[in-house]
Amino acid sequence: MQLSEIKEILKAEQVTGKRAYSGEIKLAAASDLMSDLLTNINPPDILLTGLSNIQVVRTATITGIDVIVIVRNKNVDDKVIQTARDEAIIILKSKLSLFETCGLLFNKGVRSIWHTTEE
Amino acid sequence: MSPSIPFSNIDLLAYKTKVADVMKVFFMIAQPDEMISALNNRFQENKDCDIIVTENEKVIGIIDHEDLMILQSKTNNDWTVREKLTPTKNIFYTDNILADIVNHFEHCGTRFPVLNRETNTVAGTISRCDIVMSLLKGTLDSTTEYSEQTEEKDTPQFFKNIYADSSYLQLEYKIESKNFDKAGEASNQLKKTLSYLNMPKNIIQRAAIIAYETEMNIVIYSDGGQIVFNICPEQIKMHAKDVGPGIENIDKAMQPGYSTAPDWVREIGFGAGMGLQNINQYSDYMDLKSTPGKGVNLITKVKA
To answer: Which of B26, B14, B28, B222 is nearest to B135 (CA)?
Structure first.
Protein backbone atom coordinates (compact mmCIF):
# COMPACT_ATOMS: atom_id res chain seq x y z
CA MET A 1 0.00 0.00 0.00
CA GLN A 2 1.06 3.60 -0.49
CA LEU A 3 1.24 6.03 2.40
CA SER A 4 -1.47 8.22 0.88
CA GLU A 5 -3.87 5.25 0.73
CA ILE A 6 -3.14 4.40 4.34
CA LYS A 7 -3.80 7.97 5.45
CA GLU A 8 -7.14 7.89 3.68
CA ILE A 9 -8.29 4.52 4.98
CA LEU A 10 -7.26 5.18 8.56
CA LYS A 11 -8.44 8.79 8.34
CA ALA A 12 -5.05 9.62 9.73
CA GLU A 13 -3.25 12.95 10.10
CA GLN A 14 0.46 13.22 9.34
CA VAL A 15 1.85 15.14 12.31
CA THR A 16 5.51 15.19 11.35
CA GLY A 17 5.06 17.64 8.50
CA LYS A 18 4.65 17.16 4.81
CA ARG A 19 7.41 14.63 4.21
CA ALA A 20 6.50 12.43 1.31
CA TYR A 21 7.07 8.68 1.40
CA SER A 22 7.15 6.80 -1.84
CA GLY A 23 7.92 3.36 -0.48
CA GLU A 24 5.55 0.44 -0.71
CA ILE A 25 4.14 -0.59 2.68
CA LYS A 26 3.77 -4.35 2.79
CA LEU A 27 4.67 -5.51 6.27
CA ALA A 28 3.34 -4.23 9.54
CA ALA A 29 3.70 -4.75 13.24
CA ALA A 30 1.18 -3.75 15.87
CA SER A 31 2.33 -3.59 19.46
CA ASP A 32 2.48 -1.53 22.60
CA LEU A 33 5.52 -3.49 23.73
CA MET A 34 8.73 -2.12 22.32
CA SER A 35 10.69 -5.26 23.19
CA ASP A 36 8.43 -7.24 20.87
CA LEU A 37 9.63 -5.18 17.95
CA LEU A 38 13.20 -6.02 18.79
CA THR A 39 12.62 -9.76 18.43
CA ASN A 40 12.60 -9.59 14.67
CA ILE A 41 15.71 -8.44 12.89
CA ASN A 42 13.76 -7.31 9.84
CA PRO A 43 11.79 -4.18 10.58
CA PRO A 44 8.19 -3.72 9.47
CA ASP A 45 7.45 -0.95 7.00
CA ILE A 46 4.83 0.41 9.37
CA LEU A 47 4.26 0.23 13.12
CA LEU A 48 0.82 0.60 14.68
CA THR A 49 0.83 1.39 18.36
CA GLY A 50 -1.00 3.04 21.22
CA LEU A 51 2.25 4.15 22.78
CA SER A 52 2.96 7.81 22.17
CA ASN A 53 6.15 8.47 24.13
CA ILE A 54 9.64 9.08 22.84
CA GLN A 55 10.64 5.44 23.17
CA VAL A 56 8.44 4.61 20.20
CA VAL A 57 10.58 6.84 18.03
CA ARG A 58 13.80 5.51 19.55
CA THR A 59 12.73 1.91 18.95
CA ALA A 60 11.69 2.79 15.41
CA THR A 61 15.07 4.37 14.73
CA ILE A 62 17.00 1.42 16.12
CA THR A 63 15.02 -1.13 14.13
CA GLY A 64 14.64 0.94 10.98
CA ILE A 65 10.88 1.53 10.91
CA ASP A 66 9.86 4.41 8.61
CA VAL A 67 6.22 5.01 9.49
CA ILE A 68 4.45 4.96 12.86
CA VAL A 69 0.68 5.12 13.34
CA ILE A 70 -0.41 6.21 16.80
CA VAL A 71 -3.97 5.11 17.42
CA ARG A 72 -6.87 6.06 19.64
CA ASN A 73 -6.16 9.75 19.02
CA LYS A 74 -3.38 9.80 21.61
CA ASN A 75 -1.66 13.10 22.20
CA VAL A 76 1.84 13.27 20.71
CA ASP A 77 4.36 15.60 22.40
CA ASP A 78 6.22 18.22 20.38
CA LYS A 79 9.50 16.67 21.48
CA VAL A 80 8.42 13.29 20.12
CA ILE A 81 7.42 14.87 16.81
CA GLN A 82 10.69 16.78 16.56
CA THR A 83 12.79 13.68 17.28
CA ALA A 84 10.84 11.76 14.65
CA ARG A 85 11.46 14.55 12.12
CA ASP A 86 15.17 14.57 12.93
CA GLU A 87 15.28 10.85 12.21
CA ALA A 88 13.10 11.16 9.09
CA ILE A 89 10.36 9.03 10.61
CA ILE A 90 6.74 9.74 9.71
CA ILE A 91 4.12 9.74 12.47
CA LEU A 92 0.45 9.43 11.61
CA LYS A 93 -2.29 9.93 14.17
CA SER A 94 -5.57 8.04 13.86
CA LYS A 95 -8.77 8.29 15.89
CA LEU A 96 -9.47 4.61 15.24
CA SER A 97 -8.56 1.83 17.63
CA LEU A 98 -5.56 -0.47 17.22
CA PHE A 99 -7.88 -3.33 16.37
CA GLU A 100 -9.69 -1.40 13.64
CA THR A 101 -6.55 0.02 12.06
CA CYS A 102 -4.99 -3.43 11.94
CA GLY A 103 -8.10 -4.92 10.39
CA LEU A 104 -8.36 -2.21 7.77
CA LEU A 105 -4.75 -2.60 6.66
CA PHE A 106 -4.99 -6.38 6.74
CA ASN A 107 -8.00 -6.22 4.44
CA LYS A 108 -5.91 -4.30 1.97
CA GLY A 109 -3.20 -6.92 1.90
CA VAL A 110 -0.71 -5.62 4.45
CA ARG A 111 0.76 -8.54 6.37
CA SER A 112 2.59 -9.09 9.64
CA ILE A 113 6.39 -9.31 9.85
CA TRP A 114 5.83 -12.51 11.80
CA HIS A 115 3.60 -13.93 9.07
CA THR A 116 4.74 -17.36 7.96
CA THR A 117 4.73 -18.13 4.27
CA GLU A 118 2.57 -21.24 4.50
CA GLU A 119 -1.05 -20.16 4.08
CA MET B 1 21.66 26.84 -16.06
CA SER B 2 22.41 23.66 -14.23
CA PRO B 3 23.49 23.91 -10.61
CA SER B 4 27.05 23.03 -9.78
CA ILE B 5 26.05 20.76 -6.93
CA PRO B 6 25.35 17.19 -8.02
CA PHE B 7 21.89 16.73 -6.56
CA SER B 8 18.88 15.58 -8.46
CA ASN B 9 16.11 15.96 -5.96
CA ILE B 10 15.08 19.34 -4.61
CA ASP B 11 12.69 17.65 -2.21
CA LEU B 12 15.60 16.01 -0.47
CA LEU B 13 17.22 19.38 0.15
CA ALA B 14 13.99 20.92 1.32
CA TYR B 15 13.57 18.21 3.92
CA LYS B 16 17.17 18.14 5.02
CA THR B 17 18.04 21.82 5.21
CA LYS B 18 17.20 23.81 8.31
CA VAL B 19 15.94 27.37 8.12
CA ALA B 20 18.92 28.47 10.23
CA ASP B 21 21.31 27.52 7.44
CA VAL B 22 19.63 29.68 4.84
CA MET B 23 18.05 32.62 6.65
CA LYS B 24 19.28 36.18 6.57
CA VAL B 25 20.70 37.31 9.87
CA PHE B 26 20.76 41.04 9.18
CA PHE B 27 17.66 42.53 10.69
CA MET B 28 16.57 45.29 13.00
CA ILE B 29 13.91 45.26 15.64
CA ALA B 30 11.59 48.25 15.62
CA GLN B 31 8.59 49.36 17.64
CA PRO B 32 5.33 50.12 15.83
CA ASP B 33 5.37 53.78 16.80
CA GLU B 34 8.83 54.56 15.51
CA MET B 35 9.13 56.71 12.39
CA ILE B 36 10.38 55.15 9.18
CA SER B 37 12.81 57.99 8.58
CA ALA B 38 14.43 57.39 11.97
CA LEU B 39 15.30 53.77 11.25
CA ASN B 40 18.99 53.67 10.44
CA ASN B 41 20.69 50.73 8.87
CA ARG B 42 23.15 49.74 11.56
CA PHE B 43 25.11 47.35 9.39
CA GLN B 44 27.90 48.58 7.16
CA GLU B 45 29.02 47.02 3.89
CA ASN B 46 25.73 47.31 2.08
CA LYS B 47 24.08 44.61 4.05
CA ASP B 48 20.40 45.36 3.71
CA CYS B 49 18.35 45.09 6.87
CA ASP B 50 14.83 43.84 7.15
CA ILE B 51 12.75 45.36 9.91
CA ILE B 52 11.01 43.08 12.37
CA VAL B 53 8.31 44.86 14.30
CA THR B 54 7.60 43.77 17.82
CA GLU B 55 4.98 44.90 20.28
CA ASN B 56 4.99 43.71 23.87
CA GLU B 57 7.78 41.28 22.94
CA LYS B 58 5.66 39.62 20.30
CA VAL B 59 6.48 39.79 16.59
CA ILE B 60 3.60 41.51 14.83
CA GLY B 61 4.96 42.34 11.41
CA ILE B 62 7.81 42.83 9.01
CA ILE B 63 9.13 45.45 6.60
CA ASP B 64 11.20 44.01 3.80
CA HIS B 65 14.54 45.80 3.20
CA GLU B 66 13.57 46.74 -0.35
CA ASP B 67 10.32 48.35 0.79
CA LEU B 68 12.24 50.16 3.52
CA MET B 69 14.68 51.62 1.01
CA ILE B 70 11.86 52.88 -1.17
CA LEU B 71 10.03 54.43 1.79
CA GLN B 72 13.16 56.10 3.11
CA SER B 73 13.90 57.57 -0.29
CA LYS B 74 10.62 59.46 -0.22
CA THR B 75 12.05 62.25 1.89
CA ASN B 76 9.00 64.53 1.79
CA ASN B 77 6.84 62.00 3.55
CA ASP B 78 7.11 60.02 6.74
CA TRP B 79 5.15 57.23 8.31
CA THR B 80 5.08 55.21 11.48
CA VAL B 81 6.34 51.67 11.25
CA ARG B 82 2.88 50.46 12.12
CA GLU B 83 1.41 52.06 9.02
CA LYS B 84 3.80 50.35 6.64
CA LEU B 85 4.42 46.92 8.08
CA THR B 86 3.19 43.70 6.56
CA PRO B 87 1.42 41.80 9.33
CA THR B 88 3.05 38.51 10.18
CA LYS B 89 0.76 35.54 9.88
CA ASN B 90 3.46 32.90 10.11
CA ILE B 91 6.46 32.61 12.37
CA PHE B 92 9.15 30.03 11.85
CA TYR B 93 11.94 28.69 13.98
CA THR B 94 15.61 28.13 13.30
CA ASP B 95 15.09 24.40 13.48
CA ASN B 96 12.23 24.26 10.96
CA ILE B 97 13.11 22.62 7.68
CA LEU B 98 12.71 24.46 4.37
CA ALA B 99 9.86 22.15 3.41
CA ASP B 100 7.82 23.66 6.23
CA ILE B 101 7.93 27.16 4.83
CA VAL B 102 8.04 26.68 1.08
CA ASN B 103 4.30 26.21 0.78
CA HIS B 104 3.54 29.31 2.79
CA PHE B 105 5.21 31.65 0.34
CA GLU B 106 2.34 31.14 -2.09
CA HIS B 107 -0.30 32.59 0.16
CA CYS B 108 1.12 34.43 3.09
CA GLY B 109 3.74 36.91 2.01
CA THR B 110 7.29 37.01 0.80
CA ARG B 111 9.39 37.22 3.96
CA PHE B 112 8.96 35.64 7.35
CA PRO B 113 10.58 36.22 10.74
CA VAL B 114 12.61 33.37 12.21
CA LEU B 115 12.80 32.85 15.93
CA ASN B 116 15.08 30.81 18.14
CA ARG B 117 12.87 28.17 19.73
CA GLU B 118 14.55 28.07 23.13
CA THR B 119 14.93 31.78 23.79
CA ASN B 120 11.96 32.93 21.69
CA THR B 121 14.06 35.77 20.31
CA VAL B 122 14.37 36.84 16.71
CA ALA B 123 17.21 35.10 14.92
CA GLY B 124 16.70 36.27 11.35
CA THR B 125 14.34 36.44 8.41
CA ILE B 126 13.78 34.19 5.42
CA SER B 127 12.36 34.63 1.97
CA ARG B 128 12.11 32.63 -1.22
CA CYS B 129 15.00 34.63 -2.61
CA ASP B 130 17.26 33.55 0.25
CA ILE B 131 16.57 29.93 -0.57
CA VAL B 132 17.26 30.39 -4.26
CA MET B 133 20.47 32.31 -3.59
CA SER B 134 21.66 29.53 -1.28
CA LEU B 135 20.97 26.98 -3.97
CA LEU B 136 22.89 28.95 -6.56
CA LYS B 137 25.83 29.50 -4.26
CA GLY B 138 25.85 25.79 -3.58
CA THR B 139 25.60 26.31 0.13
CA LEU B 140 22.82 23.79 0.61
CA ASP B 141 23.98 20.42 1.82
CA SER B 142 24.26 18.13 -1.15
CA THR B 143 26.53 15.35 0.01
CA THR B 144 25.09 12.39 2.00
CA GLU B 145 22.85 10.05 0.02
CA TYR B 146 24.03 11.29 -3.34
CA SER B 147 27.74 10.96 -2.79
CA GLU B 148 29.42 8.23 -4.77
CA GLN B 149 29.45 4.88 -3.12
CA THR B 150 32.22 3.43 -5.17
CA GLU B 151 34.59 2.39 -2.39
CA GLU B 152 34.78 -1.34 -1.81
CA LYS B 153 32.55 -2.47 0.97
CA ASP B 154 34.98 -5.12 2.13
CA THR B 155 36.85 -3.21 4.76
CA PRO B 156 34.98 -0.71 6.85
CA GLN B 157 36.26 2.71 5.84
CA PHE B 158 37.74 3.71 9.15
CA PHE B 159 40.13 0.82 9.32
CA LYS B 160 41.34 0.95 5.75
CA ASN B 161 43.91 3.62 6.38
CA ILE B 162 45.11 2.40 9.75
CA TYR B 163 48.28 0.33 9.65
CA ALA B 164 48.78 -1.84 12.70
CA ASP B 165 48.96 -5.46 13.70
CA SER B 166 45.50 -5.03 15.11
CA SER B 167 43.30 -2.05 15.70
CA TYR B 168 39.92 -1.32 17.12
CA LEU B 169 37.71 1.65 17.83
CA GLN B 170 36.40 2.07 21.36
CA LEU B 171 33.18 3.95 22.12
CA GLU B 172 32.01 4.61 25.67
CA TYR B 173 28.59 5.70 26.75
CA LYS B 174 27.44 6.66 30.24
CA ILE B 175 23.89 5.59 30.95
CA GLU B 176 21.78 7.49 33.46
CA SER B 177 19.34 5.58 35.62
CA LYS B 178 15.62 6.33 35.10
CA ASN B 179 16.23 9.03 32.47
CA PHE B 180 13.65 8.09 29.84
CA ASP B 181 14.15 11.14 27.73
CA LYS B 182 17.70 10.10 27.05
CA ALA B 183 17.11 6.35 27.10
CA GLY B 184 17.95 4.98 23.68
CA GLU B 185 20.27 7.83 22.73
CA ALA B 186 23.44 5.82 23.21
CA SER B 187 22.28 2.94 21.02
CA ASN B 188 21.10 5.35 18.36
CA GLN B 189 24.47 7.08 18.41
CA LEU B 190 26.18 3.72 18.14
CA LYS B 191 24.02 2.81 15.16
CA LYS B 192 24.85 6.08 13.42
CA THR B 193 28.57 5.59 14.08
CA LEU B 194 28.50 2.03 12.73
CA SER B 195 26.75 3.26 9.57
CA TYR B 196 29.35 5.94 9.16
CA LEU B 197 32.07 3.32 9.49
CA ASN B 198 30.41 1.30 6.70
CA MET B 199 30.07 -1.80 8.82
CA PRO B 200 27.94 -4.56 7.23
CA LYS B 201 24.22 -3.90 7.64
CA ASN B 202 23.48 -7.15 9.39
CA ILE B 203 26.08 -6.49 12.06
CA ILE B 204 24.78 -2.99 12.60
CA GLN B 205 21.21 -4.16 13.04
CA ARG B 206 22.12 -6.87 15.54
CA ALA B 207 24.53 -4.70 17.50
CA ALA B 208 21.99 -1.88 17.65
CA ILE B 209 19.23 -4.09 19.01
CA ILE B 210 21.55 -5.60 21.60
CA ALA B 211 22.74 -2.13 22.60
CA TYR B 212 19.20 -0.83 22.88
CA GLU B 213 17.93 -3.68 25.07
CA THR B 214 21.02 -3.34 27.26
CA GLU B 215 20.66 0.40 27.54
CA MET B 216 16.99 0.14 28.49
CA ASN B 217 17.81 -2.47 31.13
CA ILE B 218 20.36 -0.16 32.71
CA VAL B 219 17.96 2.78 32.67
CA ILE B 220 15.01 0.80 34.02
CA TYR B 221 16.53 -1.52 36.60
CA SER B 222 19.86 -0.14 37.74
CA ASP B 223 21.20 2.95 39.46
CA GLY B 224 23.31 3.82 36.44
CA GLY B 225 26.04 2.31 34.36
CA GLN B 226 28.16 2.46 31.27
CA ILE B 227 28.48 0.63 27.98
CA VAL B 228 31.78 0.26 26.13
CA PHE B 229 31.91 -0.89 22.52
CA ASN B 230 35.03 -2.34 20.95
CA ILE B 231 34.72 -2.23 17.18
CA CYS B 232 36.95 -3.87 14.62
CA PRO B 233 36.08 -5.03 11.11
CA GLU B 234 35.38 -8.59 12.23
CA GLN B 235 33.31 -8.00 15.33
CA ILE B 236 31.63 -5.64 17.72
CA LYS B 237 32.18 -6.40 21.36
CA MET B 238 29.98 -4.80 23.98
CA HIS B 239 30.81 -4.58 27.66
CA ALA B 240 28.01 -3.21 29.83
CA LYS B 241 28.38 -2.64 33.55
CA ASP B 242 25.95 -1.18 36.01
CA VAL B 243 25.57 -0.50 39.70
CA GLY B 244 22.34 -1.48 41.35
CA PRO B 245 20.19 -4.36 42.62
CA GLY B 246 21.60 -6.73 40.02
CA ILE B 247 19.79 -9.87 38.85
CA GLU B 248 18.68 -12.33 41.53
CA ASN B 249 18.25 -15.33 39.28
CA ILE B 250 19.95 -15.21 35.92
CA ASP B 251 18.40 -18.42 34.58
CA LYS B 252 14.92 -17.14 35.31
CA ALA B 253 15.71 -13.73 33.88
CA MET B 254 16.78 -15.32 30.59
CA GLN B 255 13.40 -17.00 30.16
CA PRO B 256 11.23 -15.25 27.60
CA GLY B 257 8.31 -13.54 29.26
CA TYR B 258 9.82 -13.46 32.74
CA SER B 259 10.02 -9.92 33.98
CA THR B 260 10.63 -8.14 37.26
CA ALA B 261 9.47 -4.84 35.84
CA PRO B 262 7.12 -2.67 37.91
CA ASP B 263 3.87 -1.46 36.30
CA TRP B 264 5.10 1.95 35.30
CA VAL B 265 7.73 0.34 33.10
CA ARG B 266 5.11 -1.65 31.24
CA GLU B 267 3.16 1.52 30.67
CA ILE B 268 5.97 2.91 28.59
CA GLY B 269 6.19 -0.19 26.46
CA PHE B 270 8.91 -2.16 28.18
CA GLY B 271 9.08 -4.93 30.73
CA ALA B 272 7.81 -7.61 28.38
CA GLY B 273 10.50 -9.96 29.57
CA MET B 274 12.04 -10.30 26.10
CA GLY B 275 15.13 -8.13 26.57
CA LEU B 276 17.72 -10.69 27.62
CA GLN B 277 16.25 -13.24 25.25
CA ASN B 278 16.64 -10.81 22.35
CA ILE B 279 20.21 -10.09 23.34
CA ASN B 280 20.94 -13.82 23.45
CA GLN B 281 19.32 -14.39 20.09
CA TYR B 282 21.29 -11.75 18.22
CA SER B 283 24.70 -12.12 19.77
CA ASP B 284 27.31 -14.70 18.83
CA TYR B 285 28.61 -14.72 22.37
CA MET B 286 26.93 -13.64 25.58
CA ASP B 287 28.26 -13.66 29.10
CA LEU B 288 25.93 -12.34 31.79
CA LYS B 289 27.05 -12.12 35.41
CA SER B 290 25.55 -10.44 38.42
CA THR B 291 26.13 -10.03 42.11
CA PRO B 292 22.70 -9.32 43.64
CA GLY B 293 22.87 -6.06 45.53
CA LYS B 294 25.94 -4.89 43.60
CA GLY B 295 25.20 -4.79 39.88
CA VAL B 296 25.31 -6.50 36.50
CA ASN B 297 28.13 -7.26 34.09
CA LEU B 298 27.28 -8.18 30.49
CA ILE B 299 29.64 -8.99 27.62
CA THR B 300 28.38 -9.73 24.11
CA LYS B 301 30.05 -10.21 20.76
CA VAL B 302 28.52 -9.76 17.32
CA LYS B 303 30.68 -11.27 14.62
CA ALA B 304 30.81 -10.49 10.92
So the answer is: B14
